[in-house]
Each structure stands twice: as structure tokens, then as C-alpha cells.
Amino acid sequence: MTKPSNKPVDELVPIFFMGKRYDVPASLTIQKALEYAGYQHIRGCGCRGGVCGACGTVYREPSSYKLQVGLACQTVVEAGMHLMILPYYPGNRSIFDIEKMKGTGSEIAALYPEIFKCIGCNACSQGCPMDIDVMHYMAQAIRGDVSGAAETSFDCIMCGLCASRCPAEEVQFNVAILARRLNARYGKPRAKHLAVRVKQVEDGVFEEPLHDLMKLSTDELKQLYRDREAEPQMAEDDWTPQDARYV
Amino acid sequence: MAKVAYYPGCALNERSSHLDRSARDATEKLGFELDELESWTCCGAVPPVSKERIMNLIAPSRILKDVRDSGRDMLITICDFCYNTLKRTNFSIRTDDIIRKRVNAFLADDTPTRTYLEEEKSPWQEYEGEVKVVHLMEYLRDELGYAVITEKLKRSLKGLKIAPYYGCVMLRPFDEIQLDNPENPTIMEDFVRALEAEPVKYPYRTECCGSYLSVSSPDASTRLCYRILSSAMKNGADAIVVSCPLCFYNLDSRQKVVLDAYPDFKTIPVFYFTQLLSLALGVGMDRQGFERHYVDVSSALEKIGNSGERDKA
After folding, report:
1. B40 in contact with chain A, both atoms CB, cutoff 8 A
2. In which domain, by residue range, is B190 found?
3. CB contacts < 8 Å between A and B, how many?
4. CA B113, A175, A178, A180: dihedral to nearest 10 degrees?
5. A139/B42 touch (CB, cutoff 8 Å), yes or no
6. Does the ipTM exceed 0.90?
7. Which of A81, A108, B247, B298 has its CA 20 to 30 A from that of B93?
């Protein structure tokens, strides 16, 4: 066996994090590059897969004056980029009891009256790493179209970068999640199969494997874990395990 | 059926959707379709008093550019505020090189710059004010012709005395809007005549109803509405007709407050011009949303009665 080489396999490129230069492998994402540089992410790092919204990042490249956005876990570093991760952006969140609401646009307007300050500059959409038409769902919220705002904002991961760009100081992502909650509660029909499944869970239909496990000794549990059937790395959509009793 | 690009505006989208519906019903009867823009934002509702406020011109400019980019050259609106904002923004872009360049610098930034997105296929083209902004009333007068409406009447409004209310933004400022004489207009009177109703002239028809003061200084708006409404009634009106959802809100809903403030006041029905139009073209009462009005409109509708029904194929 050959000893792993300490030489980087990749070309190193300079990036500037909080203004300080680090030379990092060119193929890494911003998130991994910072770990390479010695940072440990305690906040501002969640799923590492582009869906949790914890690692919203703003950056500029040397070739353009324009402010760019991306997720640190998805965006590959570029030579000379200046960047900062914005794991959290302050946003006011209105308190509501969804059971006491009706699901109308005026309820959004009452909880977030500042939506009417929107001037349609579109900075929010330009600042969205999920390519959501943020300005459009705000326009829909303004005109009371709850289901429209819910559908348009569906991919929102609540990173808050839209709010960081807004000259009207809107908190778009909180308006959006209110619209989606109202739409789910009042705009969409209740899922019938969900009630059936909840009943099954409550009736203990799925408890048998748990009881089986609780009878085992520590060694037997360890063995079971070692022998477990793992989902392949590149599984097909219809992949199911050999033991499909509870799937 | 011919299609004309249509900008409903926020007020008519949900909160006053019955007014939007009556406009669509009526134009269908007249042989053209109001084709709502695929994606639109609030126009801003008020044109900026200072044109230095470039940011406020961006949203209305983008709406107009989207119309141009979709290959159309005319945009219909049925709200006076949207009409005023869009038309004046367009005027600024047409007449002021600096404003046009600054607005376009922002519009050019609209395309997201993220590298993993596909690039826009159509090349960027500066918006130069190519689209013509028209009020539906203007379209009926100039493009269709009021005579066509009279020809297609199914239910004459004969016997009804209607006071047209212009408010302040439909006609002003004249050098930018150029719709009608702002002090002595006739476009709405002629519209009322086309429906075979009788227009009532009264001194307050181009005065302000209080507009947004309805929110910040409701008392001021109450006083203004009282003057307008009682002046129309003194001159014999059975009903008021308006062409702006905010005027509609003030003149209709505010009558509740006017009643409390002025003991001599009696209520008067208020119609949106599209409601009268679609009624006269034979669209059913049930599609007008009259139940959403504060003032019961039946006193006015009784004047038309059934005598107005026509049997024209």
C-alpha cells in the first residue's frame, strides 16, 4: 500500500474570506474550502446538500462589480472571489394561531403590513440562491393571492438572502412561509391517506420491529447493524430493501 | 377573439375581483378578450412626485417592457391609479433620456447572474416607451367606438340618471395623460349616453374623494365624499359611476361613516363602469357582485326595470 501523498491533487486558488486570503483547491465548494483552510462550521452549516438554507453566501468575483449569491455547500470557489457566509439574517416573524384564521390575503396583509412598501425593484429575486421569483410571490401576497404566493415560493429554503437585499426592509421568506401554511391549511384539501396512516401508527401497527429489537442483546444489536442492508449510493427511485415488511 | 394585453392591478385581483369579472364579461360581449399579463407586480399605485426617485419607476417600467417583449404594443387597465402610474412612467421614459437610461440600467439587472442558470435567449433591448397605455374607457371610445356599444345593448339603461365621477387621477396632469379636458371632460358622460342612460352634471365630478387619506385622515375623506355624493344627489342622480377601485371604495363603503357624520345624508348606489357596461350588454345580475357593495343598488336597478330588456340577437 502506498502512503497517501500530502500534495494537493488540485490547483490552489486564492479566495478571500472576511477579507483574509486563503489558498484552497479549485474544485472545492466554498464550504469545504473553508474547512480546508481550518474553519470549523458550528453554525451556518446544515444539510450540506443544498436544501436546508443554513449557508447562504454572498460574494463578488474579480471580473464583475455585481454582488453574487449562492449556497456555500453548492457553490464552487473561484479564483479571487471575496465572500462572506450569512448563516442568519434578522427577520421579524409575526405570531399567529393558524386555527383561528381563514386563509385569506388580508390576513397576510394584517400580519405583515410592510409588504405594501414593496417597490418592485427585484433585488430579492436577484439575491435568491434557489432561483425563486421572490418579487413575484411578494406581488401575489400584496394582491391577496395566497395560493399563488404559496406555489411561487414553494422551493424557498428560508436562507434570508432576499431580506438582506431589500430596500423596503421586507422579510420575504416569512411572508412566504405564512402563505404556504395558510394554503396548506385552508387552500388545499386534507390528505385522506394521512389520517389512515396516523391511525395505523396510533394503533401500533408498526411497533413489531421495535419490540423485536428490544428483545436483543447488545452484541446481537451490533451484529444486526453490521449486517444491515444499506441503500446504494446511486439508488434507483424505486429501490426497496429485501425486507420490505414495513415500507 | 381579439386579445388585448390587460393589467388588472392589485385592487381588482382579489379584493375587488367582482369588478375585474364584470370587465372581462363586458369585453367578451363586445368581441375582445382582456388577456392578463403572465406575471405582474404592483405598479406602485402612485407615480413618484419627484422623478429623481428612480426606484419607484422600475416596477411600472418592467410591466410595460414585459408587454413590449411579448410582442404587443398596447396595454389596457381599468383602474385610474394604475392608468395614471403606468402612463406617466411611460411618458417619462419617452421624453426624458436620463430617466430612460437610468431605469433601463436597473431593468438590465433583472436577469439573474448566477452561472448555473440558462442565459436568456432573447437579446436585451432597452425599453423606450413603445407600449401605448390605455384606460378601458379610452379603448371603448377610441378603438371600439361608443356606437358599437349602443348597437350591442341588450338591456337599455334608459330612465336611469347617472352621475359620472372622474376623481383626480384619470385626467391629470393633462400634458402627460391627454385623455380629455381635465376641467370639463365628457368621456364618461358619453359613455353613460352610449348605455342610453342620462348623465347628470354636478360641480364636484372632478374633485378628489380623499384617495389615500381614507387611511391616514379618514375624516377628511368623509367630508369630501359627503360633498361629492350630496352634490350628485341634489342634481338628480340615481347612482354614481366610477372608474377607479379606490374612488369606488371611498364613495361606496365610506357612506356608512358619512351617514354617522351628516344626519341629513341619504345613501346613493355606486357602480363601477364595467358593471353598468356588462349589465347593459346582457350579463346577469348575479355576476356583478352587488352583494359586496355597502349601499344596496336595487333602488337604481328598479329604475331600469324590465322595460329596458331588448331582444336583439
Report:
1. yes
2. 154-304
3. 69
4. -30
5. yes
6. no
7. B247
The predicted structure's pLDDT at residue B312: 45
**Is B6:B276 a contact under the CB 8 Å cutoff?**
no
pLDDT computed for residue B97 by the predictor: 95
Interface of A with B in 14-53 (CB under 8 A): none
In this structure, is the dihedral angle defined by the CA atoms of residues B110, B114, B117 and B118, taken in order, positive or negative? positive
Q: pLDDT grade, residue A142 (50/70/90)?
A: very high
Co-location of A63 and A119 in the same domain: no
**B309, part of any domain:** no
- Calculate Rg over the CA atoms of chain B: 20
CB within 8 Å of B125: residues ≥ 6 apart: B69
Domain that holds residue A199: 193-224
Q: Residue B310 pLDDT > 60, yes or no?
A: no
The answer, yes or no, to whether residue B120 has pLDDT greater than 60, is no
What CATH number should be reported for the domain holding residue B80? 1.20.1050.140
- Asked if B158 and B130 sit in the same domain, the reply is no
Backbone torsions φ then ψ of B29, nearest 5 degrees: -65, -30
pTM of the model: 0.85
pLDDT attached to residue B306: 57
- In angstroms, what separates the C-alpha of A40 from chain B's closest C-alpha? 27
User: Domain count of chain A?
Assistant: 3
* pLDDT computed for residue B304 by the predictor: 84
pLDDT band at B102 (very low <50, low <70, confident <90, very high): very high
The residue written with cell numbers 429485501 in the block is: A242
